[in-house]
Amino acid sequence: IWRRTSSTAHGNVTSSAWRCTKTFAVHREDPLLVRTARGEAVERTPVWLMRQAGRYMAEFRAYSDKYPFRTRSETPEIAVELSLQPWRAFGTDAVIFFSDILTPLPSVGVEFDVIKGKGPRIESPIRSMEDVMQNVVDMGDPNVKLPFVRTILETLRSEIDESTALVGFVGAPWTLAAYAWEGKADRHLLHTKTAMTRQPEAVHLLLDKLTDMLAQYCVYQIDSGAQVMQIFDSWAHHLSPEQFQVLSLPYVERIVRHIHEQRPGVPVIFHANGGVGKLKALQGCTADVIGLDWNTDIAEARQALGRGRVLQGNVDPMLLFAPQETIQEAVHDCIHRAQPGPHILNVGHGVVQGTPEEAVRYFVQVAKESGPQQGYAAPSDRDLLTAQ
To answer: What is the pTM of this model?
Structure first.
């Protein structure tokens, strides 16, 4: 297993050194993806897909055409069904529960809705220090504010087999803060970016409040059954590398640290969309897994982040529209370029609407035919003795 052994200052974040302890703490009862995320030797590369439950599936559309988003994501029996559909159809190594990064916002006083064809809308966006102080409240008890999340996760954990990982997730503080300030998706983030320079104290207070809520929400998901947590910084591409180290990474680090302290052994994945130019900053990230978008060269990321860092990604999801031989080549190339070191295969962005279901099935199939990851031996029964 690869472990951090020391830390040194690196800009605004902390840079960790890694070494291999030659120790295999193999847990036969733990799913392949969980063991990989911990940096353990594994028998093959695990595979799942971001936005694997989506409108590209006919089964999913039967629900999305009938029910609005929040009904689907907050009604346990529907959310459970939508979460399980891609796992049943394609045999992915993980189930990620059907929800949204904005789901916890109402618990702190920020209401939202998802308008079909337009996306999320916040009718009363945050625009000032007064708004942050008066309108953004403490989360309180998530069992009271978000009871459906526990029901969904507990049910999923009982439905899937022991070889499949249950993934929980949250949005990063920066992404949620930008949504709350902007009120909707915007290519320029005009209101938010203006506030970054004209009202920086208000922006940081909002980030601080959201970080406290998200840390609590992560532990709630874990206690409800999530075995891995992923933090999505969907709007990290709006930040320069320098801004990323001020407005995103420090707050993400607080959440990661809270999870590691409160629920040790639960791996954390951090996926920052638009990670190009941010690899140096990510060297200091203490998340167990770094997710890469499809614009990032995974071989370059391996070199920058080290052979001990678990990487996730990062096939271009648009390649799922290609012929099977192209998909096969893309999978093999991604797995090869991620070596030597632990790797979880995924797409570098969510599966898009219109993607052929057969292509997703083939993507998973090819990944499952991969052998042991380079630089690792598949664990044997003797590894259970954990020799130094």
So the answer is: 0.90
